[in-house]
Amino acid sequence: MSRQASSHVDRRPARRAGLGRRLSDWLVATFVIAGGKLICHLPEGPLWRLGNLAGMVEYRASPSRRDHTRRNLRHIVEWMAANGKGAEEYRRAATDPKALESLVRSAFRHHAHYYLELAWAPRFDARFVTERLFVETPREVEAWLTERRALILIGMHFGAIELPGFYVVHRLGLIVAPMETIDNARVQRYLFSTRATIGVRIVTLEEAGRELLAAVRRNEPVGLVADRDLSGAGLEVELFGARTKIPAGPAFLATETGAPVYMSAVRRTGPGRYRGSLRQVPVPKGANRRERIRAMAREEARLFEQFIMEAPEQWLSLFHPIWPDLEQAPMRESGETA
């Protein structure tokens, strides 16, 4: 075969693959954007029932995610039972396989509800937040809202992830937050634009360090979802009695700027109903910079535990590896029932 013919043959699959990828991205983006706009106009009751159904479909169709969720939930409820913490319904799941599997199924329903809320975000106006969100720590909220505008708000992959940021927007008018890059550029632009309309300015992870630091120095609030380390370069902490890593961003930003740090989480209590609270993260003083950063990471982990214990099945990180040692342990029988 000649060199000319060889190069001709080698290029054709690449062109077809590129065209196929672009077509696939276009179809996915069209589906996501059209679906998001449709969801914003659907009645709320049927929408929540649809979410429950979608969660059960994913539960049946995703054995790997189901196993991760079960393994992680079992670890949490066993820790809660061993330490006498949290509600009895969760501690009971440590020894009752049926109760544990019920939590696993509930986790998948909450996962589906998260995506519905993601599409529903343009409807999260001030009235929606005021009527639907019960604030369990009103004094703390009022204190930090009137104290100063420059603050660091730590969120979690938990419950209604979007609501804490929207609450800040409706009280302060703006929040800057990073978001991981999505391969589909059209979907990413759509998500950026929907949040921009309600006052959330999204920045990419690549520019997050520079943009968040600049925002705090401009006396603006910033938000970071920081319970799951995606880079592998996070800070090691103990969470529910086992070692894992969490992102270093909040601790570094707090140490660099001196801005007050708060953590918030909002959990679902029913269709379109939520309860949330806010707690200040102590910023250690007196030690060197490295020790302060590590001490703050430990405080973050302690607060993560407190929030997660209120509704472990609403922690979306359950679907992914969390504790390396737990991943290496043999999988136990699920006790799953049909």
Structural class, from helix and strand content?
A: alpha/beta
What's the total number of strands? Answer: 9
| Percent helix range | 55-70%
Number of helices: 13
N-to-C series of helices and strands: HHHHHHEHEHEHEHEEEHEEHH
For the biggest sheet, the summary is: 5 strands, mixed
The average pLDDT score comes to 84
Indicate the low-confidence ranges by residue numbers: 1-17
Assembly level: single chain
- Please tell me how large the radius of gyration is: 22 Å
Strand order of the largest sheet: 1-9-8-2-5
In whole angstroms, how far apart are the ends? 59 Å
Shape: globular
Strand content: 5-15%
Brief synopsis:
The chain contains 13 helices and nine strands. It has 338 residues and is α/β, with parallel strands linked by helices. Strands 1-9-8-2-5 form a five-stranded mixed β-sheet, with helices on both faces. Strands 3-4 form a two-stranded parallel sheet.
Give structural notes.
- The chain is an alpha/beta fold and 338 residues long.
- The protein has helices at residues 3-39, 44-61, 63-83, 88-92, 97-120, 126-132, 138-147, 163-172, 185-196, 205-217, 249-257, 289-310, 324-328; strands spanning 133-135, 152-155, 175-179, 200-204, 222-225, 235-239, 242-246, 261-270, 273-280.
- The chain has a domain at 125-312.
- It is 57% helix and 14% strand.
- Strands 1-9-8-2-5 form a 5-stranded mixed sheet, sandwiched between helices. A two-stranded parallel ribbon has the order 3-4. A two-stranded antiparallel sheet has the order 6-7.
- The N and C termini lie far apart (59 Å).
- 33% of the residues are buried.
